[in-house]
């Protein structure tokens, strides 16, 4: 993780490639949605720029790591090419969250 650039590099085992996702992409999406009437995600100023205390709140993390911001990054009219990698990373975290959050083996994610 590069705090200065606000990027995280990750390896996608399925595609055998390295990718980078950027927190700045979420901030750009939030800024774009602030100017529009319709919102594609539940991003708030607290979820994209949390204080030290707010970083511990699960609800704010779930505003970022859910299907909605990933879909918004993929389908926004302000979409940029680099946003796709960020959306892919968020979807991988969401999938992992659903698997780890299962109560029983019979429950599906």
Automatic annotation (TrEMBL):
Pfam families for the chain: TNP-like_GBD
Domain of life, source organism: Eukaryota
Domain Transposable element P transposase-like GTP-binding insertion, chain residue ranges per copy: 21-106
This protein's name: Developmentally-regulated GTP-binding protein 2
